[in-house]
């Protein structure tokens, strides 16, 4: 019913600070990106990572969507740092939403974040 | 209050006017009108007299006779009584109803209920400006049409329909016309006789009165057939039972009196503030107004900002501006506004839109403060969004 | 206030408790919760939190979970939603409803509407004490019974029905039991679980809260099927649409809290005053109490005075005592009380009866003053009446 | 609807003072009475008059009923003084109710007053 705060403290914090929002600047290593968009669901997310020695050393996100989408994108970007492409990133919608306390009706939007991570994982996978 | 957020959500609910609050408090106090206004004793009659004066005040604001004003718990109930009541009362004459896609949910959902009861509903699409042209209504009328229900002004875009034109289209055809005037009463001149409607819904909390009280105008002559949605007690000519809430009606009536006294001057002032707000927002670029040109209520600015998502904009603004991305009752849902979609806006454009609604408490200083905050928030969210999001607006 | 008439019409409406009025005023003031409680922004959520606390308070008073409390505009609406809603939702299972002749008009008239919709209604007659014995309900149940609606306490006589017994008779038969508890909530201990009802109607203005707000308890598990009587907005689990009236709910909740805190002590005090009143009235002679022995609410004394006609008695008392000859909503009509008639009273006895209802504001001094005035008025009217009128009471 | 005073000032005045309520005391002349009762309508009215030289010199009423019945009975008793039995008393329900501003739903009760007047007229009619 009415009265409850739809945003958990962690969502508010990530939304307000938006750490890692934006694009990577010039630098060493390989830069890879992954993007997903579902305008009818109200989400458009893009990740960029810099990979050095098989490990993500820097991650950035851009997101258009509700606060939960922005917060989940920021959280995912944080977790992407230290990730070794080729391994599973472990950043699916269910994980992100549980950590952030996202209401059920927003799950569809978090799938867009997951899709962008998946696209990134495909783009960043080491060529074998 | 310098640092309190600017309240730009008058379309969802207006703050209660201080004089109204004061009078209601007195009525609730030990010397107030505490008895049941249906009681025959002196205190009951005193409460009854308060009710009577409130009825006269509401009637005066909208050019009606007091006996044509029924009190309800709000526009939602008024809409339901009108839509369900008129259609059910007419079901032996026909089972066709005409409405639009941009009605308030009280009307939409009442019409959906009629569909479940065997009525056929024609759902009209607004033109690009968000209006329902009278010709469109005329074209939808059939031999078996018993009810047309079209709102006066839309609660998201503020656009005003040509109700008199729609009434003309219905005239002489035995069709009952209901008009939801929740957003116009007390905000623009409104005369039920000029509107030509048979039924008109009002609510107090959009015009400086309390929440939880409203009215339904029911034309006197000819009186449209109406089946009650609730029964018992005999109050309100047997059409709306329940103990009348004296203090609420007192507040409603007084708010109507105040609104009536200030109507034209306030309409001009608020419309001026709305334009001032829009002019201050335009420099942010890639911004547009929803609802096109043509008549609209003074207090609503529905604007879109490419590259921005409404809910995030609201949260980014939270400490500075209180507004809505759609109607209050759907603001908790994740759905894009059905009203803006019906106007033909793309998903992106719908979700990039914000309803800023001004009213009696709004000042120029607040407008300036709000505009600055909105510009900052839009710029920040755009800096976070994918670069092409700002360009991609249909 | 020494010379103000004594208010003995608490069954029609109680004065608002001063603390309730104060809190409501604050809520209506500039720093109050003015936004739409459905709005997502901070002010909306603040209003929403007020609503939530009110829901908890109402739930606490009646032993319910907050999620089982729906807010309405009063017991009339709650009764209608319950009676029409449960019967219509069950119409595919059966079309038989059981109720009594002594229900409030909200229930009676809703049941009559069900008859027009093709339901068959069994109208039970109370016993001489005014009660509906559970066996009578059990005997009326059929395979196709979908709803039983019996009030908790009658608003004219104050007699309390054995609802738990009635619930036991209904149990396991797929029958929804609705109970109108407008006269008992906050006045006698009431626990919806003990009552065993599926639906229970409440109203704020009979327990020291404001008029125009009430609640319907809808059991959580199993949840009775209920078709709304109005549509739109999605508030109250889609069962009761419309903007929630924050200040009204605040008042309702606070009144429940106060009533809960004082419940047993007030019940005892008020019952004591009622007996004091009766003892002070008896010396007038040829007087009787309606409603027999057995459980009753503390605040209602329904007494008859041979040789006196109720309406004239009320007018003779007007400067001294405010009371009713029947329920407030029928007090304007010239009909004798259908409730007393259903008890088997003669026309003369019905019309010789007066409902004196006491409550939180009533004092012993008021009772004594009222009794003296009533004795005087009875004596005067008897001196005017035909001599045999005083003797002719059935 | 609500709020209006159901009692006209004249009704309130007659109800409060109840002039001529009661019975005739002993005295000269002929005493006649007429009574009507309709308990289901809530009215029971009795008139007593003292007739001297073919004219009512004193009238009394007793009434059980609502304030309108009491007021109408008092008004009728007042008018009965000076009336010459045999002539039409002219105190029908419509006349009384118009003079007192009685609401329509009470007309049935005023018929009982009229009936009592009629009974009195019959009882008081000069034997011919
Ligand atoms: C156009 C319109 N109709 C109906 C309503 C419902 O009114 P209420 O809140 O009084 O139920 C509203 C606002 O809530 C509205 O804007
Ligand atoms: C038993 C009973 N039910 C229902 C009602 C109606 O309640 P409300 O006045 O809140 O509509 C009342 C009193 O008016 C009542 O006494």
Considering the chains and any ligands shown, give keywords for the structure:
heterotetramer; A: 128 residues; alpha+beta; Sufe protein. Chain: A; 4 helices; 38% helix; B: 394 residues; alpha/beta; Aspartate Aminotransferase, domain 1; Aspartate Aminotransferase, domain 2; seven-stranded mixed sheet; 12 helices; 12 strands; 39% helix; globular; binds pyridoxal-5'-phosphate
Describe the structure.
The complex is a heterotetramer, with two copies of chain A (128 residues) and two copies of chain B (394 residues). Chain A is an alpha+beta fold and 128 residues long. Chain A has a single domain (9-124), classed as Sufe protein. Chain: A. Helices cover 38% and strands 23% of the residues of chain A. Chain A has four helices and three strands; from the N terminus they run αβββααα. Chain A has helices spanning 9-17, 67-80, 93-100, 107-124, and strands spanning 30-38, 43-52, 55-65. In chain A, α3 crosses α4 (107-124). The longest helix of chain A has 18 residues, at 107-124. In chain A, 50% of the residues are buried. By secondary structure, chain B is of the alpha/beta class. Chain B folds into two domains: 6-14 and 263-391, Aspartate Aminotransferase, domain 1; 18-257, Type I PLP-dependent aspartate aminotransferase-like (Major domain) (Aspartate Aminotransferase, domain 2, 3-Layer(aba) Sandwich), CATH 3.40.640. Chain B contains twelve helices and twelve strands. Chain B has helices spanning 18-28, 42-62, 75-89, 105-116, 134-140, 163-170, 192-195, 246-281, 310-317, 338-342, 347-351, 364-384, and strands spanning 6-7, 69-72, 96-100, 120-124, 145-149, 176-180, 199-203, 214-218, 287-289, 300-305, 321-322, 353-357. Chain B has a seven-stranded mixed beta sheet, with helices on both faces. The longest helix of chain B is centred in the C-terminal third of the chain and has 36 residues, at 246-281. The relative contact order of chain B is 0.17. The mean pLDDT of chain B is 94. Classes of the chains: A alpha+beta (128), B alpha/beta (394). The site of one pyridoxal-5'-phosphate has 13 residues of chain B, from α3.
């Amino acid at each position: 019913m009415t009265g409850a705060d739809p945003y958990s403290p962690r969502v508010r914090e990530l939304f307000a600070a938006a750490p890692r929002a934006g694009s990577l600047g010039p630098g060493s290593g390989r830069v890879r990106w992954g993007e997903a968009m579902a305008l009818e669901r109200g989400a458009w997310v893009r990740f960029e990572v810099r990979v050095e020695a098989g490990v993500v050393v820097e991650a950035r996100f851009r997101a258009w969507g509700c606060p939960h989408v922005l917060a989940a994108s920021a959280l995912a970007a944080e977790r992407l740092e230290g990730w070794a492409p080729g391994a599973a990133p472990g950043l699916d919608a269910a994980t992100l939403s549980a950590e952030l306390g996202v209401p059920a009706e927003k799950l569809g939007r978090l799938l867009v974040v997951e899709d962008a991570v998946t696209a990134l994982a495909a783009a960043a996978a080491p060529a074998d | 209050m310098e640092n309190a957020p600017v309240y730009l959500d008058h379309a969802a609910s207006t703050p209660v006017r201080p004089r109204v609050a004061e009078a209601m408090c007195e009525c609730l106090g030990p010397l107030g009108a505490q008895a049941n206004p249906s009681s025959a004793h002196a205190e009951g009659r005193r409460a009854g007299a308060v009710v009577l004066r409130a009825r006269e005040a509401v009637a005066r604001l909208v050019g009606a006779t007091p006996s044509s004003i029924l009190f309800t718990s709000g526009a939602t109930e008024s809409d339901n009584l009108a839509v369900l009541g008129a259609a059910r009362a007419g079901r032996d004459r026909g089972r066709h109803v005409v409405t639009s896609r941009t009605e308030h949910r009280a009307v939409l959902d009442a019409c959906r209920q009629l569909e479940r009861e065997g009525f056929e509903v024609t759902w009209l699409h607004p033109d690009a400006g968000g209006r329902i042209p009278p010709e469109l209504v005329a074209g939808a009328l059939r031999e078996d049409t018993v009810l047309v229900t079209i709102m006066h002004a839309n609660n998201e875009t503020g656009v005003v329909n040509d109700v008199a034109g729609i009434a003309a289209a219905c005239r002489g055809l035995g069709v009952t016309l209901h008009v939801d005037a929740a957003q116009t009463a007390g905000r623009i001149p409104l005369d039920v006789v000029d509107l030509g409607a048979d039924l008109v819904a009002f609510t107090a909390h959009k015009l400086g009165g309390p929440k939880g009280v409203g009215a339904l105008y029911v034309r006197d002559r000819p009186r449209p057939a109406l089946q009650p949605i609730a029964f018992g007690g005999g109050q309100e000519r047997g059409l709306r039972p329940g103990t009348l809430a004296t203090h609420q009606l007192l507040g409603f009536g007084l708010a109507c009196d105040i609104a009536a006294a200030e109507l034209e001057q306030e309409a001009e002032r608020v419309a001026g503030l709305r334009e001032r707000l829009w002019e201050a927002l335009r420099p942010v670029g890639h911004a547009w107004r929803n609802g096109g040109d043509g008549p609209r209520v003074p207090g609503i600015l529905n604007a879109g900002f490419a590259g921005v998502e409404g809910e995030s904009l609201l949260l980014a603004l939270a400490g500075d501006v209180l507004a809505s991305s759609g109607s209050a009752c759907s603001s908790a849902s994740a759905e894009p506004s059905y009203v803006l979609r019906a106007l033909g806006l793309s998903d992106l454009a719908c979700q990039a839109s914000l309803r800023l609604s001004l009213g009696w408490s709004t000042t120029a200083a607040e407008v300036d403060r709000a505009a600055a905050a909105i510009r900052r928030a839009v710029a920040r969210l755009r800096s976070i969004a994918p670069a092409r999001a700002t360009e991609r607006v249909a």
